[in-house]
Fold each of these.
Amino acid sequence: SQQGEEDPQALSIQEGENATMNCSYKTSINNLQWYRQNSGRGLVHLILIRSNEREKHSGRLRVTLDTSKKSSSLLITASRAADTASYFCATNDMRFGAGTRLTVKP
Amino acid sequence: NAGVTQTPKFRVLKTGQSMTLLCAQDMNHEYMYWYRQDPGMGLRLIHYSVGEGTTAKGEVPDGYNVSRLKKQNFLLGLESAAPSQTSVYFCASSYKGLNTEAFFGQGTRLTVV
């Protein structure tokens, strides 16, 4: 079974707004990773957060991790049309959820 | 650097035919993975390898076989293709499984008719 489960399945926002997507997982982890997939292409790594970290930033990305709730969130601030993509979380055993499809309208 | 290269990019098979998908990485990565992605779904792990000469089953291994004879190559075989194996297949590699990012190929779109 898939380890990570993203929520919501789809998200549509206006350019400039923030986008938040969540990931829940089932078992203990060493790290959690977020990836982005543009339509029809391979996944690209965005950020990795270790189990002893609570928050991590990379540019306009902010990731949080709550190991007590077995959940993580990815926040994209000041979204752009180019952020339109699917976003996936993966646990350290490299199993992915179904993803969140983000659409940013110009 | 080419990164992770998948061959072929597209293929149409008839039911019952066999084929091999090739994944090659030039980053000296230990770990390699094969996934399938179906419409509206995430990636499901088929098989993976933690080093040359090793392979292990993932979430959906049935109907597929793999081999890792050389560190840089990970082959995915379909012995007798079925329409249910119509999918986009992605290969990925990482230095080691823990705490390292994975690099993905651009995918192979396989249609079984």
Note: Residues 64 and 78 of chain B are 5 Å apart (CA to CA).
Amino acid sequence: KAGVTQTPRYLIKTRGQQVTLSCSPISGHRSVSWYQQTPGQGLQFLFEYFSETQRNKGNFPGRFSGRQFSNSRSEMNVSTLELGDSALYLCASRIAGAYEQYFGPGTRLTVT
Amino acid sequence: AQSVTQPDIHITVSEGASLELRCNYSYGATPYLFWYVQSPGQGLQLLLKYFSGDTLVQGIKGFEAEFKRSQSSFNLRKPSVHWSDAAEYFCAVGDTGGFKTIFGAGTRLFVKA
């Protein structure tokens, strides 16, 4: 069974631009979560989607948004990029009702 | 509020030596506990999990962890470390109320020859 895939793997953007990251969960997994990982803040939870609905949300500004499609694929969007948004963005999926998550390789976003 | 503490930011062990990574959690009920490993530039891989039952759980790559309710701990162990074990290790607790997962800050493991 294929794992969680994320595209693109690397991205360089300029301050003020916006970016969209994509995540395809493991087949059969309907929950997708997004995390931001930085050296200073560690792993921070952004949001979780289940069956196209946002179920949980972390403490991030409204510039960070997401959505989930009917095939469980998810996208995350960051508008008006700031230098501090440079990070590894990780997506994780899980089966409904389970707690263990399976992570993708991440998207490395660099904002210049 | 639920929290996870990994007291050691980094640990260095010699190849072949035993390893123990510490994890303490704060949670009102019986927690769901996890250990993940992350190699540089990669995502997190689930090593093992504890939900209930036997307090000593076996995971992949020769790792095991022991749940000690009295100490609110879930320490990760390996009897003999290999150079390929060098990575960052994250302890996490599942919030049974909201289906959230709370991660510790991580412990970076260095392995010396």
Note: The radius of gyration of chain B is 13 Å.
Amino acid sequence: QVLLVQSGAEVMKPGASVKVSCKASGYTFLNYPFSWVRQAPGQGLEWMGWISTSNGNTNYAQKFRDRVTMTTDTSTSTVYMELRSLRSDDTAVYYCAREERVVGAPDYWGQGTLVTVSS
Amino acid sequence: DIQMTQSPSSLSASVGDRVTITCRASQSVSNYLNWYQQKPGKAPKLLIYAASSLQSGVPSRFSGSGSGTHFTLTISSLQPEDIATYYCLQTFTTPNTFGQGTKLEI
């Protein structure tokens, strides 16, 4: 079965960087791209960007474009999201999600990684 | 960016009720409209993709309709386990954008 397992919670200082991992299993990793979505406490869902697992192409939301990098490691079926220059309003749960092939809807999601930014 | 507007923001209903949630796009998204259910502390769950296709394993009481700019999610007979927040998501163009959510209560 498809399973996405994310790395554990992080507490970071303002200005630092965080790198969240998402390890996929149960299907052919190269066949499906990934999105990253975040959710601040008590708030809605926010799309951060997309990465192709076959060629590493990325597409970031303008809001994050100068601070985020998404990468893949095909040898371990893992995708990564690094967010730099963290601020307190980056405190959120970060989700990775595999995209299905019909309309690109995220169909399988990781369990989420809480990133807390606090001095 | 395409703006997605859901209504209502919150909804109180009774078990067995027919419930409808609406999502409107600021411009056409064709049928690239998807619906999610999220329970507290959990990741979103895909219910409907491509406006009206039921995701595998999702109960048939959930259905979706619409195209272009106006979409609806319908729960034909509300069950206690349906208490959650529901989001629409357009994947027609990047940045993909979510509606603000509809909190469903009994």
Note: Chain B has a mean pLDDT of 97.
